[in-house]
Amino acid sequence: MDRVNHFVIIPIIALIIAATGCSGEEDTEQEEENEVEDEPSEEEQDEENDATEQQQDPNEVLDELVADVNSPPENLDEILEQDPGPLSGQRMDDYEEEFLEVMEPLMEFEADEWEETEETYEKLWTLIHSWVATDFPDPDNIIQQIRQTQIGHPDFEDEGQFSFEDQFNAQIILDASGSMAEEIDGTSKMDIAKDSIASFVETLPEDAQIGLRVYGHEGDNTNEGREESCNSSELVYDIQEYEEDEFADELDDVEPTGWTPISYSLQEAEQDFEDYPGEENTNIIYLVSDGIETCDGDPVEAAEQLSSSEVEPFLNIIGFDIDPEGQEELRELAEMTEGTYTNAANEDELTQQLEQSEELSERWEDWLSGAEVDASRDWYSMKHSTIAGYRNDWTDLMRAQDYAARSDIARFLRDEEIISNEASQYIQSESSDLQSMKWDIADEIQDDLQDINEENYEEMVEDIEELQDEYVND
Fold first, then answer.
1. pTM given for the model
2. Where is the VWFA domain (predicted)?
3. Domain boundaries defined on the chain
4. What CATH code would you report for 159-372?
């Protein structure tokens, strides 16, 4: 009996185990199916992510966007100091893709999501202005051009003033500090300077001599390399007749490296000209720098020493993509030596400033051939061409900026229901007010430049009449 029960029980247990196993497998499969069904698809996940992004508070996003943005300018100094925005000088009709890319952070919101307050409107205006901000030309560059109409004419020599002599010698002192490796529109400042200098030296008078001195090209811009760099200022091309290949080789070898020893370089420049005293030579120095003295020297003292030396050079300083503090120091340097200072923010402006400097060599050639300065011609050209052209450039930039802010952005965002009509109206009103202020400033600048030009002309005429009385009428 026990044996029979044993044979019966074993199959029953086996059946129970098999049934349980199958049931477990079915449950597991069902759970896995349920898990698969519960997992969202990739498309559903994207929609969920988009929904999460849509939940961002637009006012918080706006706060982040304007955190490091300067407020719109309120005077001329602030206009000249502002950085150009990514849409500077552009209109949406021609640059739609660029406009949409810049506006993208706002495009995900709707008008009814914003806090309708004046504070919000002001932040939107500040942001939009930063997008369309424009690099306006400095009127001081025109003043320097007016001053150059008198430079070197033998009839207008005062004691200690620069004058033309028989031999024309020019030296370029080039900044090779580490900051010259920074890029403007994808090209290093050093490469831009090299191209502009190479073009400039080709325009010098045939009998002119040229020299090239570089500084900051050794050591590096770390504290460890500072001492070596601050002691590096080298005349890489002696003052001599221009040989294109030799000059180009020396210029090409210059690489931006270290610090900015301007004072030391001006001291060395005096030695470079020791064989060319000012009594017999026309000596002109072109200093191209993107920064101020960083080697504890006193460039003003060095420049004064150079100016009062037997070399008697004319110092023409060009600040290249330099901040307001640096501009002020280099401008002071030029004023203390009765030289000129101009500022260049990019390749076109640097080339333009060197071309304006070229006028000195052209005037030397005129003087050498016995030509007299036509004061009336200079006055007329300055008034109707240079000053009027400056005003036209200012007006074009001002209009483009205003149209971009009001029509291309504020109205577009309103029409797309990204911002409210009230916000759009506020932005347009602020842009219009800013344009009115710039109109007034442009009028004042034009009047001031015309007054300076008129005074300059009257001084020239007065000096001519005095010379006529002294040497002709008597």
1. 0.55
2. 169-364
3. 57-150+373-474, 159-372
4. 3.40.50.410
